[in-house]
Write a structure and sequence with these properties.
Layout lengths: L8 H7 L3 E5 L5 E4 L1 H7 L3 H4 L10 E2 L3 H9 L4 E10 L2 E11 L5 E7 L1 H47 L6 H22 L8 E3 L1 H13 L6 E6 L7 E3 L1 H19 L4 E15 L2 E13 L6 H4 L17 H11 L3 E7 L2 E9 L3
Parallel strand pairs: 8-10
Antiparallel strand pairs: 1-2, 1-6, 3-4, 4-5, 5-6, 7-9, 10-11, 11-13, 12-13
Subcellular location: Cytoplasm
EC number: 2.7.13.3
Keywords: ATP-binding, Cytoplasm, Hydrolase, Kinase, Nitrogen fixation, Nucleotide-binding, Phosphoprotein, Transferase, Two-component regulatory system
Length: about 350
């Protein structure tokens, strides 16, 4: 029987689609296969001897925990490591193993597509659960509120002292405020009036509104793609979406100030709600604030979830509902010093 010859280790590593690095205890790179060179956007020669964290703008790996595991003679795995290179975020599954010669073998497999898919599935499940919850609560809240408001109105008429009406007016005002809150939670009950026009008209209205709220230490930058085609949308609803996101960015910057970028681009060959579109409009709102806390990111579009003290947590929930009605989607990426929300709207032709 013929005996086949195995390729050497270098040939095997060079052919892998996963990124392979050999690093020392200081995480300085001693070897990078072609996939790792492509990921890190550096040649093997430039990578050699450079500590991995110095190559990245952001690296979420808990290096101390990894080194503790390796020193204990155990392997280490983190199924969701975020790293940022040249402003681009990558989500990877990372495995580390100590080799007999003392070097550390790092294998990084891309998880961006899986993460994005699971995030979309999670958001869809959240939306259904939240909608059912809100509808049930709305029914239970609105009926008693109507009774309270009606009773307060009758009591106002029956009070002998008009000065006492001040107290019943408070009841009426607060009942109206709660009813308005419930209506906002439910979102628009009727589909909007779609017109075909440039999304930049909406963007400019948002800029005009927000510009009046900007402190001196915040810069709002417009970066529009003039070739972006017109698309059918409800201008009022999309204005509400973008206004909510831009105001969130402004509030996230806080007293330290910073920069907000409102960007438009054309996206190509995009699948939205199971339909493949040749063209779609992409609107990004980017800020250089502190980033969204990791513990909030998976529930960010839930109603009543807010990372800001005093926030209602309704803005993003309403925004996602409106974008869903346009057969679009909202995505975000966030790490310290960078948060970017991207709204995708189909261009139907």
């Amino acid at each position: 029987m013929a005996t086949g010859t195995l390729p050497d280790a270098g040939q095997i590593l060079n052919s892998l689609i996963n990124s392979i690095l050999l690093v020392d205890d200081e995480l300085a790179v001693h070897y990078a296969n072609p996939a790792a060179q492509q990921l890190l956007a550096q040649s093997a020669r430039k990578l050699f001897g450079t500590p991995l964290p110095e190559l990245l703008s952001y690296f979420s790996l808990n290096i101390g925990l990894m080194q503790e595991s390796l020193q204990a003679g155990q392997g280490f795995t983190d199924n969701e490591v975020t790293l940022v290179i040249d402003g681009r975020s990558h989500i990877l599954s990372l495995t580390a193993q100590r080799l007999p010669d003392g070097m550390i073998l790092l294998e990084m497999a891309p998880m961006d597509n899986q993460r994005r898919l699971s995030q979309e599935q999670l958001q869809h499940a959240q939306q259904i659960a939240a909608r059912d919850l809100v509808r049930g609560l709305a029914h239970e809240i609105k009926n008693p509120l109507g009774g309270l408001r009606g009773a307060a109105q009758l009591l106002t008429k029956a009070l002998p002292d008009p000065a006492l009406a001040e107290y019943t007016n408070v009841i009426i005002e607060q009942a109206d405020r709660l009813r308005n809150l419930v209506d906002r939670l439910l979102g628009p009950q009727q589909p909007g009036m779609h017109v075909s026009e440039s999304i930049h008209k909406v963007a400019e209205r948002v800029v005009k509104l927000v510009s009046m709220e900007l402190p001196d230490n915040v810069t709002l930058v417009r970066d529009y793609d003039p070739s972006l085609p017109e698309l059918a949308h409800d201008p009022d609803q999309i204005e509400q979406v973008l206004l909510n996101i831009v105001r969130n960015a402004l509030q996230a910057l806080g007293p330290e100030g910073g920069e907000i970028i409102l960007r438009t681009r054309t996206a190509f060959q995009l699948t939205l709600h199971g339909v493949r579109y040749r063209l779609a409009a992409r609107v990004d709102v980017e800020d250089n604030g502190p980033g969204i806390p990791p513990h909030l990111q998976d529930t960010l579009f839930y109603p009543m979830v807010s990372g800001r003290e005093g926030g209602t947590g309704l803005g993003l929930s309403i925004a996602r509902n409106l974008i869903d009605q346009h057969s679009g989607k909202i995505e975000f990426t966030s790490w310290p010093g960078h948060t970017e929300f991207s709204v995708f709207l189909p261009i139907k032709k």
